[in-house]
Amino acid sequence: MSTIADLKTFLLKLRSDLNILEERQAKLGGNTPLELINQIDDHKTAIALTEQAIAGELSEAKWWEALERIHSEFVGERPQRLANVFAETSLWSGSQQVGGVNLSEIEGKISIEGGIDASVKAGGDVVGGDKKITYNQQGQLVETQYNVAGDTHIHYHGSPPEPDVPEKRPQSFEPETVLVAAGPFLMGSDEGQARQAPQHQVDLPAYEIGIYPVTNKKYAPFIKNVRTQDEPAGWFLRRPPKGKEDHPVVGVSWHDAWAYCRWLSQKTGRTYRLPSEAEWEKAARGVEGQRYLWGEDWAADRCNAGRDDTSPVKEPANQDRPYFPRGKSPFGCYDMVGNVEEWTSTLWGSDPGQSDFEYPYNPDDGREDLEADRHLPWVFRIHRGGSFQDSHPDLSCAARSFDNPNSKLDWRGFRVVREL
């Protein structure tokens, strides 16, 4: 039998998890996935049922029947946080069967772990251990281990993990990316613009970044599939300018670039986004802080600069060869200076005359707030790399500039980061 104290404890846990989910929904805004909306709705249903049970308006049998129906859905096709609530409370384990064993017979401390060993086979037994609940990094319940007569049995919530599943191959419309290893690098410069100073060390985790800026060819499937998205200037019938398929896409706002990243993430199951300015700069100059992609000295034949239009990123007659093969960064990126300016995720601030975020770079001080335009009257976002119309003083790896995120210019595009 469940006591009123048990019910109240269960209710508190439900409300706590609902607050977490609703905070996540508030951050996502209009981009909230249906899965999260379903989680919130089911938590609200469970809360309402439990409140009725506490008030005596619902019998325990009816309460259990309704909750079991919700729980069954969650540990079946879509295991979610509500299943975690059940697993963590004595109410669910006190009289229920899991894997053919009554959990009320099981003793031992519950431990929460951060992942699951994918090499463990479904149904396998190992000797020893306490009752253990395992969550994945998304906070979802994936495994319960329980000890019976000295054996630890494994029960999977949802599908059991597959051992050593290789990552699926990139699809043809995905930008090519290259790994930037974790570790420190020198950011900024004590020469040139004041906004580049001081030079300082920044430590970043590993990530992958586009080898090239996103091209018209890579951007075209997004425009074709998302009919509500405005096509860039110069496109006709949602197709890029003829002969410029391999040129960087231009005339895209910061918001357009983010919309593309969200679409690409949804289509591929991988997480794409704009680089922070620190990620962009490390990929461009390497860890030693060199001035240009290729070294300390300017070389006009290594990028598209001082000209009147964009250039392709690869040789038209040889798609395996970059258009500027000697304009390669230490990490293997091309066209990071000249050709097109590139949006980053980073805020300059609200005042064009003075940045709200001085160096040293700190990703946690608000400069990476993607929702800033919702609570500030005016914002500017940083772009990097200069364009085809700039001269070499503006094309160092440390050079910074900014613009209104709604601006769309014929010399500005972007490249992507893929999270690992």
- Average of pLDDT: 79
Class based on secondary structure composition and strand pairing? alpha+beta
Order of helices and strands: HHHHHEEEEEEEEEEEHHEHEEEHEEEE
CATH level 1 name of the largest domain: Alpha Beta
The profile of the biggest β sheet is: 5 strands, mixed
Determine the fraction of residues in helical runs and give it as a percent range: 25-40%
Gross morphology is elongated
Please name the CATH architecture of the largest domain.
Alpha-Beta Complex
Assembly category: single chain
* CATH topology (fold) name of the largest domain: paralog of FGE (formylglycine-generating enzyme)
The N- and C-terminal alpha carbons lie at a distance of 47 Å
How are the SSEs ordered, and which strands pair?
Layout: H1 4-28, H2 34-54, H3 60-74, H4 81-88, H5 90-93, E1 97-98, E2 101-102, E3 112-113, E4 125-127, E5 132-135, E6 141-148, E7 151-156, E8 177-180, E9 183-187, E10 200-204, E11 207-210, H6 216-225, H7 254-268, E12 272-273, H8 277-285, E13 314-315, E14 318-322, E15 341-349, H9 372-375, E16 380-384, E17 400-403, E18 412-413, E19 417-418
Parallel strand pairs: 3-5, 15-18
Antiparallel strand pairs: 1-2, 4-7, 5-6, 6-7, 8-11, 9-10, 11-19, 12-19, 13-14, 15-16, 16-17
Descriptive overview:
- Residues 73-80, 92-131, 135-141 and 146-161 have low confidence and may be disordered.
- Strands 3-5-6-7-4 form a five-stranded mixed sheet, with helices on one face. Strands 8-11-19-12 form a four-stranded antiparallel sheet. A four-stranded mixed sheet has the order 17-16-15-18.
- Helix content is 26%, strand content 18%.
- The protein has 420 residues and is an alpha+beta fold.
- α1 (4-28) runs antiparallel to α2 (34-54), α1 (4-28) runs antiparallel to α4 (81-88) and α2 runs antiparallel to α3.
- It has three domains: 1-95; 98-163, no CATH class; 177-418, paralog of FGE (formylglycine-generating enzyme) (Alpha-Beta Complex).
- It has helices at 4-28, 34-54, 60-74, 81-88, 90-93, 216-225, 254-268, 277-285, 372-375; strands at residues 97-98, 101-102, 112-113, 125-127, 132-135, 141-148, 151-156, 177-180, 183-187, 200-204, 207-210, 272-273, 314-315, 318-322, 341-349, 380-384, 400-403, 412-413, 417-418.
